[in-house]
User: Which sequence fits this backbone?
């Protein structure tokens, strides 16, 4: 659905100057005004879902990721079907409407594996499959020697409903070259999303900040999302979250936090990076800027998974109108050592006590229960 522009559009130059020179509360107030125009009723939504990571084997070995393992690592896994089905059953029993199905780029899994996986889930369960971020989709396409649109069509026919915006990090190839040299470049990430939207699939968009990017890179990222959304209207939400250095290659050394798989594997030479992880103020500034710049993306998610519930409450006055998911299970951020445990009731209470009306939604932001 294409959203009308809220008012005169902020330009890249204006956004950069706003980001660099306005104070935190000024940015927050502007973002809150935009949020109010788009969501005047003060409803803050969340989805009940579970992250299911079907494998932790990944050939990309991104420097900011603590989740990947080599195929021959003792703790490498590919989830068996029985365990997967149990997880979905449990999710449905807890009122879940969606699974977020994501994994690493496993060199021994082919397109048939993914198609059969989707078909086997859909045969058994009435649940939305939000799955496979653009790096996974490109890897499937390249391994099968077929195009991205063909791959998306095969996955959609097998039961894939919508696509998560993972793997975007910062859509600037200068930054990607440092963070994840083996990962798809910005243009391919955008190509997957555009093709998915053309097929009628909705997707989200994410941004991981707080590593080696400059303010200009953040603006390029936001502009790429806004430009594509103008053409397709396919993004349901934007989710900025901050780099979590624990146990990652990028975190080892300067921050002294690395103890994970990368240390056991092959440490790579240190690279130039900021001394400290993103602060609460950095998070709120990015969130507010995103709300202001992305006037055509209806929903902005607060990331309690990386920021905690209290910061997510504050985020509701800095442009966010959605709490994301209850995340019955989360493995990727947890592998960096950051783990907040919250229940659905905690989320409802946090939203209400911040002065908003909590509501459970589905993947497509339809309200299914108000509290
Ligand atoms: S971020 Fe994704 S693509 Fe990169 S190493 Fe981790 S699992 Fe692999």
Assistant:
């Amino acid at each position: 659905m294409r959203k009308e522009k809220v008012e005169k559009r902020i330009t890249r130059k204006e956004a950069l100057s706003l980001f660099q020179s306005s104070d935190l509360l000024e940015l927050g107030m502007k973002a809150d005004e935009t949020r109010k125009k788009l969501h005047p009723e003060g409803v803050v939504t969340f989805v009940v879902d579970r992250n299911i990571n079907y494998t932790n084997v990944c050939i990309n070995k991104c420097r900011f990721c603590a989740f990947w393992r080599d195929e021959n690592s003792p703790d490498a896994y590919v989830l068996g079907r029985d365990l997967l089905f149990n997880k979905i059953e449990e999710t449905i029993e807890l009122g879940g409407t969606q699974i977020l199905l994501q994994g690493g780029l496993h060199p021994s899994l082919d397109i048939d594996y993914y198609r059969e996986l989707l078909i086997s889930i859909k045969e058994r369960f009435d649940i939305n499959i939000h799955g496979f971020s653009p790096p996974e989709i490109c890897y499937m396409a390249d391994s099968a020697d077929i195009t991205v649109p063909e791959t998306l069509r095969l996955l959609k026919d097998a039961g894939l409903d919508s696509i998560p915006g993972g793997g975007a990090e910062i859509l600037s190839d200068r930054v990607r070259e440092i963070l994840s040299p083996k990962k798809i470049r910005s243009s391919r990430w955008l190509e997957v999303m555009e093709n998915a939207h053309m097929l009628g699939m909705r997707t989200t968009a994410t941004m991981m900040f707080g590593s080696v990017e400059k303010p200009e890179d953040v603006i390029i990222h936001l502009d790429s999302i806004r430009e594509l959304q103008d053409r397709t209207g396919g993004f349901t939400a934007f989710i900025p979250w901050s780099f979590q250095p624990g146990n990652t290659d990028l975190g080892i050394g300067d921050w002294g936090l690395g103890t994970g798989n990368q240390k056991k594997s092959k440490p790579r030479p240190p690279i130039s990076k900021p001394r400290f992880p993103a602060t609460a103020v950095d998070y709120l500034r990015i969130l507010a800027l995103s709300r202001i710049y992305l006037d055509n993306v209806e929903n902005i998610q607060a990331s309690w998974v990386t920021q905690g519930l209290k910061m997510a409450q504050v985020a509701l006055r800095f442009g966010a109108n959605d709490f994301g998911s209850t995340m019955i299970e989360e493995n990727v951020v947890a592998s960096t050592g950051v783990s907040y445990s919250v229940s659905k009731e905690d989320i409802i209470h946090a939203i209400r006590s911040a002065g908003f009306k909590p509501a459970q939604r589905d993947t497509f932001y339809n309200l299914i229960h108000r509290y």
Remarks:
- The mean pLDDT is 90.
